[in-house]
């Protein structure tokens, strides 16, 4: 702030010398204070305020870093010209729509290019075409775009009007007046009632709930539907709903300037000579809805465009596909090609006019603008012809291309939305394409960056196992054999019906734990008593049943487990917690809550009962172990073994501990704690230091193990995507061990890998050394074992420093296998294979190995190590290592680091990236990637709202990419190849005709034909091709993921394919023109009529061109639908219908030309001969290519045609590769709720809605070896020669 709110407070406190003592201030604050004095102007003080206080703040020229507001004082606030509450998100008005929209559209290069052509066509001296040839397509494109923009803006106008006309109750002179939202201003005090939207960002003054509490729903801000709690100052809460007191409220607020930080607010309230600190817990933001609160009052702090909602409604980063970028480059190339043809024709025209034309001025007189001198006359004519040919051949730059591309993408988006196989019945959620511009990019994904919790896992926590006093509970053991039985759907859960408060959905299978509870085992009772007491859960009664509202699913699962075992958390007050232990009520005095945060990784409560004070703690196992009291015995070591065991099963662990406290020592600690809680500076740091003092000498009770299950189909999806050549990275906030376990569970990590590296260095030098070792190991393996692993028993011991963890490479010296892709005997080295076309070009990335299950590296990078890996000096080395790895797991990373990793790959690899997540912490990653996919999950809708595509389950990602993405890319590439072919075949005919018309810019075709060729005659067939075409079925696309490979290297459309299409088009145009020209030159009909007229030739060439286009697209179509038949054959018929209608009904200049041509055998002979010359090379080339180097899709299609449907890939023996890694702390929890509980204020009731506070705080741990005893898990299908028996 300009003088910082603290400095302002101290200044005013100093003015009231007797009321408060000013502490020493730093020089910086003193200088800022002096600056503040310089911009204040003294004013007479009103009688009703303290003179000195008002004297200093009466008129203040606000600086850029703070905002000053006086409640109920519009005159004072008006001087700062704060934004009013009127919202305007629309771009146009009725008056400005046409000029602004046209200005926007002509900023697009293609539109501006055609506008310039239209202007040139209006000049008779240089135009041989009527302006209508360019005006019709240009106006059509502009009109379609304008209608779309107008509709979108009309929707925005309606939304703005609806919002601005909402009613708000505002205090005016002590009375409530109903006004429009648009009339509310900064400083007004407004009243909100239950279920009303908050009109502006307001400081909460009072509410109907005890102690000024209220509840809000923030769905419009962050997508969360669970309730949030806000609380006003007790001093303002005393005003209640007394309109007179609230109308006389004259507090002054000094706060931050408008910003887009939803979870941050800093300010100070000065009122009645007191100063109060303001934070985000006292602010209600615009867009929130008041829930379960009868009424509340607040003073407007930010209004209109200054509100945090509007500050966050900025434009999302515009994303363009690689095909879009290529098209822009190609269009520039086409323009240069057009200019080169124009220059050639210009020079040729000048030469012809100088050598020949000047002698024929009697028959071809020069224009009056042309000088009579032969040389200068030829030069001027040639210059004019340059512009004439630019007009004639402008169709080589297709304006309809952009419209067609958008139509195809729009239709493809609907196909994604309508796919019933991506519909999740459990939640009623369908896949949704939230953008229509990125569909084909889904078929070119090379890297997937995925969140873990809620994306790969279900984020539904269940109490699975525990260890108490060194005894492990949760496994079901066969009493006769002593073997551990696998728990499945047929296993019988324990009966908890003895407990009236049990939950029927809770399941536990080990009877020994329930027996220990019933027989009164003291350790077990202390364990569950801690779970029932140490938390910030709120109890609620719904329909006579006890329910819990927790900040995180982890905490809810633990309190629920204690409840079912007979330790029921009943209620809490500001100073007490009541639980019921096996039917007996126990009341504990709550002395303090030591709140959770991401740094502490633990939370504690201090309780008193029967004169005994105890501290209960739960948190990360490594954090708790560091604070345990040194004791003899093997409880710690046994518990450590159990931690390793739980990690092997992918469970999330918490350690539980306690310690007794002395009354005197606690009283002294409490005094210092109270002082730290009131500190104005570094409050959090002081509190953490105070907490550290008391959370020592703990006694270990045990550990809990919570299961966060994988979503359905995750291993199979990851295996198929990997087989498609996509590298998958997991970027998670969870700790290292938990992430590694999930990696093995979902087959990102396997025993078959050559190496799994772990980079966890704490310093730059450590990370540098670890990366160097990783790089050296990769080089060794690639040098001496180039064809993958050799021995299933070859194991590497983990290095002492944990830098490179050898994971037992299974190295096999097998004979070269038959590639399922190329169907040839070949090695695994990517340098000798091609993933799509046998014998094709080698990849330019020899270091990337084939995605074979028996090969590859993986790397696990810790968050604090990633900071150094992203350092500019280590970035290149880090990139070199990770690009050799098939799988990468980055754990304990922040949202910003997620985005930085994505940006690193985008920058270093120029690869197409996709990010997928389900929570707010994934938003930055989703926005940074080329394509963002949001999952509708347990963590809210933030990721979905920021995404380009949304799905309900991770398993749907393989269908989105391997089916819809691949089809979209395949269709778009085929569309573009054909589109450029037909345009060059059409346009270059004018160039060949130039040699026979003296380069005079005379056109071959009728002007109307030129205008509607791309709009009507050839548009619908190519659109049907782009929307419905498919080379193989969706089932085949999923069975053979290698079909996805061409998109990685842009094999289906690139500069080479573009040149092939244009050369093919130029060859077609040459044949189309020369054969009819040769046939009809000096031609005579059987009855002696002359056939060698210009209009007849133009009609013949145009007709054969349409026939050729129809035949070509029929050859290109492999998947025929009714739409393809109607559009292809219908377009051919429509050509003749429209030609006759235009020439006969409207009276076109070419009337009768086509009729004469069709009645002559010469036309049919010419058409057949031309089509044979054009089609035979095309068909021969395709047959030869398919036979010599056919693609996998062609071979599969051929096999299906002759042998029926493709067989389903064989599923190998079920096996799950798992590793011994000790699980650590993985706890989703949010800081701050404990402060609300212990602040001496408590809710009279809990709102009748789900008030779970969900926020992910994924925390770290250590990596240790553990014995592997994994249960079997089905492995994803693999492909071998048997699956494609040709």
From TrEMBL:
EC number(s) per UniProt?
A: 7.6.2.1
Q: Which cofactor does it need?
A: Mg(2+)
The residues the entry assigns to the signal sequence are none
Its GO biological process annotations read:
Golgi organization; phospholipid translocation
Q: What is the lineage of its organism?
A: Eukaryota, Metazoa, Ecdysozoa, Arthropoda, Hexapoda
Family of this protein: Belongs to the cation transport ATPase (P-type) (TC 3.A.3) family. Type IV subfamily.
Q: Which InterPro entries match?
A: ATPase_P-typ_cyto_dom_N, ATPase_P-typ_P_site, ATPase_P-typ_TM_dom_sf, ATPase_P-typ_transduc_dom_A_sf, HAD-like_sf, HAD_sf, P-type_ATPase_IV, P-type_ATPase_N
Sequence positions that bind Mg(2+): 451, 453, 918, 922
Q: Where is the P-type ATPase C-terminal domain?
A: 944-1184
Question: What residue intervals traverse the membrane?
Answer: 132-151, 326-355, 375-403, 979-1002, 1008-1028, 1058-1078, 1090-1107, 1119-1142, 1162-1184
**Protein name per its UniProtKB record:** Phospholipid-transporting ATPase
Residue ranges of region Disordered? 785-808, 1262-1286
Binding-site positions, ATP = 451-453, 555, 596, 618, 652, 732-734, 892, 898, 921-922
An example Gene Ontology molecular-function term: phosphatidylcholine flippase activity
Sequence ranges assigned to domain P-type ATPase N-terminal in this UniProt record: 69-134
Q: Spell out the catalytic residues.
A: 451
Tell me where in or outside the cell this protein is found. Answer: Membrane
Please provide the record's keywords in A-Z order: ATP-binding, Magnesium, Membrane, Metal-binding, Nucleotide-binding, Translocase, Transmembrane, Transmembrane helix
Q: Which domain of life is it from?
A: Eukaryota
Q: What is its main location?
A: membrane
Q: Please give the catalytic activity noted in the UniProt record.
A: ATP + H2O + phospholipidSide 1 = ADP + phosphate + phospholipidSide 2
Tell me what topology the record assigns in the membrane. Multi-pass membrane protein
Q: Which GO terms describe its cellular component?
A: plasma membrane; trans-Golgi network
- Pfam families per the UniProt record, alphabetical: Cation_ATPase, PhoLip_ATPase_C, PhoLip_ATPase_N
Q: Where is the composition biased (Basic and acidic residues)?
A: 790-799
